[in-house]
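Sequence, C-alpha cells reproduced for reference:
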Amino acid sequence: MADRLGFVDVCSGAGGLASGLESAGFSPVLLLDNKRQACETLRANRPHWNVVCEDLNDFLPDEYPETLDVDLLSAGLPRVKSWAAVGRSDSDQELRLLTATIYLVHSIQPRALLLENLPALVESPSYTGIRDFVEEELAHLGYRFYWFVLNAADFGVPQERRQGLLVALRKQRSRAFTPPVPTVDEHVPVGRALLPSMRARGWRDADAWASQASSVAPTLVGGSENRGGADLGPSGTKRAWARMGVNAGALADEVPGADYDWPRSADPAQMVKITVDQAALLQAFPADWRITGRKTARYRQIGHATPPPVGKALGAAIATALRSPTCT
C-alpha cells in the first residue's frame, strides 16, 4: 500500500469527515474542535489521534509544527445559513470560521484543501462575495479550485443530503482532480437501512414497517446548540418522515420490542420513533463508531457530521490527484 497521506482536520465534530478520509488512505496529523463532547467522541474512537479542543479562531499552527506543509487541510464547517437567512446577524459566526480556515491555508500551506458546507455556499448569489474572497486568496497562494455539489445518497448514504464542496490543489496537480462520481446505482431507502436494527428486539412488524419506508431519509439536521431536545427537523421534514411511518418529533431510547403493538396510524404522534443509533446509521457512520454524550448531544453530533462515505469518495479523488505526476 502506498504511504498514507497526512491531513489536518478542523471543526472535526464527531469525526465523519475524518473517518471517511482515513478510509481513503489519509492519516490525521491533528484534529481540532471547540466542543468538549465532540473531542470526547474523537478520542473514544481513535485514542491515538492528536485531538486539540480549541476554537479555530484561536488556533496557532506555529505551536503545532507537525501541521505545517501537510498534504490536506479539511474542514466540515458549521453550516452557513440558507439563502433565505443570508444577511442575518446569526450567520456571522459561520462565515468567520470559513474565513479563518482560508487564512489557515496561508499558515500551513497544505498541498490540498477540502471544505464541506451547504449547497448555498456554492450556488447562492448571496454568497458571491465570500466565494470571491476565497478564490482571490487561493489564487494568490498558487491554488486552483473546484466548487461543486454532491448528494450523499449517491454514495450509499440512506439520506437526501446535498453538500456544497470546495476542493483546491496546488496548480502542479490541480488538473488531475476530478470530483467523485456516484458509487451506487440506486439509493438506499430508510427501511432497508434500518430493518436489521428494527428487528433487533423481536418486533414482529419490522418487515412491514420497512417495506413502506421506501424512500431515502430527509436531511438530518443537528439543530442549534441553544435549542431544546432532539427532533428530526422542521415541519416539512417531519411531514416527509411521517410518509415513511416515522414520528420525527422526538427520538426513542430503544427500538420497538416483541410486545410493541404497531397502531399503523396516520397520526404522526402514533408512529414509530427512531433512535440516536439509527440516526447514526442514516448518516452511514461505521457500525463500531461510538458517539459519546447524552441523547441530544449525541444526535447533534450526528446531524452536523459529514457522512463518512462522502468523505471517503472525496479523499480518494484528492489522493489520486496528489499522487499524480506534476503538470502545469
User: Anything to note?
Assistant: Residues 83-90 have pLDDT under 50 and may be disordered. The CA atoms of residues 281 and 287 lie 7 Å apart. The chain has twelve helices and seven strands.
